[in-house]
Each structure stands twice: as structure tokens, then as C-alpha cells.
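S.,

As promised, the AHM run. Input:
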Amino acid sequence: MKRISLTQHLIEEQRLNNSIPAELRLLIEVVARACKTISHAVGKGALGDVLGAADTENVQGEIQKKLDIISNEILLQANEWGGHLAAMASEEMETIHPIPNRYPMGEYMLLFDPLDGSSNIDVNVSIGTIFSVLKAPEGMATPTEQDFLQPGTRQVAAGYAVYGPQTVLVLTTGNGVNCFTLDREMGSWVMTQRALQIPADTAEYAINASNARHWYPPVTRYVKELEAGKTGPRDKNFNMRWIASMVADVHRILNRGGIFMYPADAREPDKPGKLRLMYEANPMAFIVEQAGGAATDGKNRILDIQPHTLHQRVAVFIGSRNEVQRVTEYHAE
Ligand code: AHM
Ligand code: MG
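Predicted complex:
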């Protein structure tokens, strides 16, 4: 099979559809390069002294792991100087990170969860990086948090890397979804899957069932019906998977279908869910929709939600179209 690198793919896309301006291509390549560096650090594990807690908390009050901080630094440093960005925002930083004055300012804004699935870092289970790219509003002089608060439909690119048995990069620029595998010896991203499509139907679901007693009725009903399998109203058996890394769960769904759920629940009634809209749910929703799947918060399409704060949380139902539609209908009833 002819090897197509990420660079070649992006340049061809740019020529063919004029869909990827040169600046955006540069930005994607820089993020991809940063993911290579993160992959290398993750792969060192204990030998690189990167495991364990960092004794600091992020803005959400979560204890940061060393690798959360290292990955955040890698992404910031890689993306600061290229001239393609106006500002960045991250799960690990309270407020936005404008490009320092000594560098030229570009027209894009980058958001990321530098290391998703933090609880899996120390136990050698797949983790990843999620990112989302927006355009700076017309006429923006100094970027503010407000400039980031755009609905997911405005994303011009989104992707994630999974650091697992293989390191893969999954990417969309609004023209389908492709997957690249890191060739560790050559240090290059090689396209290994083109135009991924999620099956509309599935027999696999993902939810943290230890929260079942806190769920609201539509989620309880939906999951109970899945559990009942052949003997219930669905008349079919379902299998369950929960990796506790959204990147890894979504990657499985992208490859063979499934539905991933992180609902809001009664534990903290004021919280609309656990996952963050702008750098977790939106990029994943963009990718999944581009692959023919669907993503809602139980009521609305995730990509249509108007964000009010940078670290806003959201309930997530994402994956195979018909299952997402069903659980969303249960919320409406
Ligand atoms: P993180 O960004 O702090 O790693 O949290 C997000 C992760 C998701 O990857 C995963 O789906 C979820 O949290 C797991 O949560 P739980 O431990 O409640 O099952
Ligand atoms: Mg995360």
C-alpha cells in the first residue's frame, strides 16, 4: 500500500478542495508534532519519571497528574511561535493563553484537553489528547475568553490522539474523518484509515454504571432496556465497555460503532455533566458527526450549544446514530 503521510494528505486536501488554508495546515501539523512528543513522554512511563500526581489542582479542582502538566506545556510551547494562532485554552489552565507579544498573531484559536483519561495514566491504559480549532472573530485585537465562546458548528478542525498499543491521530477538517498511525521508527504520521464511518446501529454501549443510582429516569430506562437484552423490549443482546478514557471509548466507537454516555445526574444537580463542552464534547461531536454518527446532550445537538464559559460542562450521548436518537427521544418523552 502506498504510504500517505499527514503532510501529503493535508497538502492534497488543500489543492483539491481548497478546504485547508496553509495556516490551518501548519497549525494541524504543529499539534500533530506535539502529540508525537507527548506520545514519547507517555511511552517512557516510570523510566521518564512522568507518572504520579503533581500536587497541584486545575481550575476544576481535580488533582493534576505530572503528565497533565507536561502535555499542556508541550502543546503550549509547540504552538506559541508559529504565527498561526491568536490564543489557546486548555482544561489545565483557568483562563486563556494569548500568544506572547514577541511572536506574530494568527487568526486561529486552539483549545485542548492535553491528556484525557488522567485516571488511566499510572496504570498503562490508553489515554489521549483532544483538540478543537476555531477562527478568531473578525476584527479581534486582543483575544479574550469571550472570543472562544463559539458553538461547535464553528470549529474548522478537530482531532484526537490516542496513546495506546499504537499511537493514532484522528482528524477532521469538515470533510470526513481520517486516521493516521504514528510510525515510531520514522517519526511520521501515516494514513491508515480513510473516510471512517460509524455504523448507524450497534450492540455495544459505554457508561459508568457505578453512577446508576444517581441517573435521571430517561437514562435509567434506556440502560435498563439494553441490559434486558433478548428478553426485553429491544429483543437483542448488548455488550458493555467502559475504558474511562473518552478518547479510547470514542475511538472504539469510530471503528465498530457503539454509544458512549456521560449523562448529567443527581449527584450534583447543578452540574450539567462531567465532560467539558469546548475541548472534549465539541471536538468529539464534530468528528463523530463527520463519520455519520450523532451527538446530543440528551436534548440538543451538542454542536449547536452556545457556550457561556470556557470550562462549561455538558451531558454527552455520542456515537451510532440510531442509538443516540433513541436515548434523546426518551429525554423528550
Ligand atoms: P479527564 O479529562 O480529567 O481525564 O476526565 C475525563 C474522563 C473521560 O476521558 C472519561 O470518559 C471520564 O472522565 C471517566 O470518568 P469516570 O472516572 O467518572 O468514569
Ligand atoms: Mg478530559
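The two ends are 50 Å apart (CA to CA). Residues 62, 91, 113, 116-119, 208, 244-246, 262, 274 surround AHM (ligand 1) (CB under 6 Å).

- D.
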